[in-house]
Amino acid sequence: MTEPDDDGHHWYYDHPRTLLGALQRGHGRGVLRARRDRRDPGVAEAVYGCIARDHRWDRQVDDCGDYLARLIRDLDLDLAPIIDLFWTADRDLDLHDGASYDEGTFHVTLGVLETLGHTGDRRAVDALRRAVAEAEHWTAVLDEITDRWPRQSWDDLDTVLLSRLTPQDEDDLLGFRDPWATWARRHPRIADLTRLTAERPARPPTPVPRSSDALVAVLGDPLASRGERAAALRELIRSAPEPRLLDLAEDLYGTPSLYRAVSRLGSAAVGHARGWAQDGRMHRFGVALLAAYGTEQDIPRLVEAWDRQWESEDWCGFDGLADGFARFGAVAADAVPRLRAMWRWTPHSYERAACLRALLAVDPLAAEVPLGQGLLDSESGVREFAVAHVQLDHVTRRVLGGLAHDPIESPEVRRLAATRLASR
Fold first, then answer.
1. Closest alpha carbon to 88 in 76, 72, 104, 77
2. Core-most of 26, 107, 228, 410, by most CB within 10 Å?
3. Inter-CA distances, 87 with 57, 113, 136, Å
């Protein structure tokens, strides 16, 4: 298996062995290097660069806010450039019609400032309180700070917000959530909006369930619309596994919920999956089933699928393959160099947790260094797994001690770190 060119996605990511490349990916190795070289002016430049541009591969699942905020705090970097970036992004966001650069910068700077404010940094608190009063996208700021900040840090902003509410804001207002639920108790206007939220039309009642025969008939009807087929699959998922789906699957390719419905058959789907995994449009569908339910004879197919996807530079979907290798344990040894490369290179930080699980299951020795790096990863799932499984020595104990008392850290990671430290 070959790795990408040295520049990887040259327009977006630097080489993962560089400080900037590691930080762009949210990798724990980047934190370790930044701490070691903290007096190098290039470290601050790299951290600010990762805040100025959102490098997350998938903003819906990849984390970065707490990771970058921890770097700002630990390296004692000036917050002023981040506050300036926030205001610039807030002003320019609508001008660029939500262009990815500006939208990403807005959300990353907001996330970093919210995290620092959550830990008690007065500069961050003051900046976002001002943003609630003056920013164009103040509703996003309000949603962010009321999630984790203590009530006393935002409760007195009610009169400011009442003066800013527009009819469109009122339509979007979720009156059952804070701060609106709290403010409704003392402001009649907000109380009225809360009642309107509660009176919005409920979902229509669920129709009477159809029999499996009726649902299969819809799925096999060439005149049925895609929506009708999708609805039938959703119903079928709530009933017993349906073997007749295996012969219909190719015709249903692309229909939402198809994989969920077929995967409920478990090992009974493996025979068909081996055929689908060979090639064609059902290739990834079949590979996913083999990763979840195949046997040791399918390991070469999974390795081949991994290499094919790697060469395509499509970073989504490696987690399912990694989970498949983890199921097989040591007999999937051919996966180890691939998992190590994926751990280094992937910008899809969400999938690193699966790589780490697989490395530990297949080759515990190969997992030792990644587990140590995972303690400082941007993804909480990676940190949780690393905290639970890293080898304890004087270095990892020191890191665990920091995590156990870090207000930036998630409650689960803090709890796990304290538990590991208490074990002798």
1. 104
2. 26
3. 24, 12, 9
User: Left, alpha or beta for 102 (phi > 0: left; psi -120 to 50: alpha)?
Assistant: alpha
CA 220/CA 222 separation, integer angstroms: 6
Q: How confident is the model over 72-123, as pLDDT tens digits?
A: 999 999 999 999 999 999 988 765 444 444 578 999 999 999 999 999 999 9
- Report whether the peptide linkage leading into residue 179 is cis, meaning its omega lies within 30 degrees of zero: yes
Task: Supply the pLDDT for residue 200.
Answer: 58
Predicted local distance difference test score (pLDDT) of residue 175 = 56
- DSSP type of residue 205: P
In what helix (H) or strand (E) does residue 347 lie, and over which residues does it extend?
none
Task: Say if residue 405 is exposed, middle or buried (CB neighbours under 10 Å; 0-12, 13-18, 19+).
Answer: exposed
Residue 407 one-letter amino acid = P
Q: What is the pTM of this model?
A: 0.89
Percentage of the chain modeled with pLDDT above 90: 76
What is d(CA 170, CA 348) in angstroms, rounded to the nearest whole number? 36
- How far is 212 from 196, CA to CA, in rounded Å? 40
Provide CB contacts within 8 A for 338, sequence distance 6+: 1, 303, 306, 307, 310
